[in-house]
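[INFO] parsing input record for DUF2721 domain-containing protein
[DEBUG] input buffer:
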Amino acid sequence: MLNHLIGSVDLAAIERTLQVAIAPAFILGGIMALLSLLNGRLQRLADRYREILDGNQVPLQERRRLVRRARLTYRGITFAIIAACLLCVLVIVSFVEPLVGVTVGQHVALLLVVAMGFLTMALLCFLWEVLLSARSLPLRHEK
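[DEBUG] output buffer:
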């Protein structure tokens, strides 16, 4: 059955599908880098929180800020994973389309738009977490 499906697909359709799948593949690479960065930040936050639990006296405001930053980072990771999964589905649909002979161009476009929306939310969570982190640092010029 698979030979029947593959035999009926022309080489041009497969070539076009490969071209369409390249952009999401590059975006997936970027998402993996973002996930690595967010995971590292979450690990550092968890380490800092463990230090606090081990008895270090830290103001309540700083503990709350750490929890808030960890939640933002976790949400960013969640949004990035959802975006990556949607892009994987997009690539799968792009390859299945010529095999089955169904045109799903609008669905592919919708998947890309939704994936980019989730990626944008992940990046906004990252930005918000960085801004919260920067509040506790002496970033002003001191004379």
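[INFO] Residues 45 and 66 are 7 Å apart (CA to CA).
[INFO] shutting down worker
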